[in-house]
Amino acid sequence: MIERSWTIALMTALLLGALATTLFTSYVVTCKALGKEISKNTLTLTSDNIYSDPLSHQESHP
User: Fold this and answer.
1) Distance of CA 27 to the CA centre of its chain
2) What is the DSSP secondary-structure string of 27-41?
3) What radius of gyration, in Å, describes the C-alpha atoms of the chain?
4) Secondary structure letter of residue 1 according to DSSP
5) What is the DSSP letter of 10?
6) Within 13 Å, how many C-alpha atoms sit on residue 22's CB side?
7) Dist. CA 20–CA 26, nearest whole Å
8) Where do the structural domains in the chain lie, given as residue ranges?
């Protein structure tokens, strides 16, 4: 009976550890991918604004 309880406790601990590891790994990978995507899109939008702003200012001043 005691051996069965230890086996169940060990299996539960292993499963919870594996779940926690999977969740943490998924979180880290998602954060890195999202950060790269945001910086890529933000830099693209910033460079578009840099190139488009001087043209819009020139057109507004005769």
Assistant:
1) 7
2) HHHHHHHHHHHHHHH
3) 27
4) -
5) H
6) 6
7) 10
8) 1-45
For 10-41, how does the pLDDT look when each residue is reduced to its tens digit (9 = 90+)? 999 999 999 999 999 999 999 999 988 887 77
Model-level pTM? 0.57
Question: How many beta carbons lie within 10 A of that of residue 26, not counting itself?
Answer: 10
Beta strands in the chain (DSSP E): none
Q: Classify the phi-psi angles of 61: left when phi > 0, otherwise alpha if psi is within -120 to 50, otherwise beta.
A: beta
Tokens describing residue 22: 């999977």
Token duo for residue 32:
């890195």
Report the C-alpha gap between 48 and 42 in whole angstroms: 10
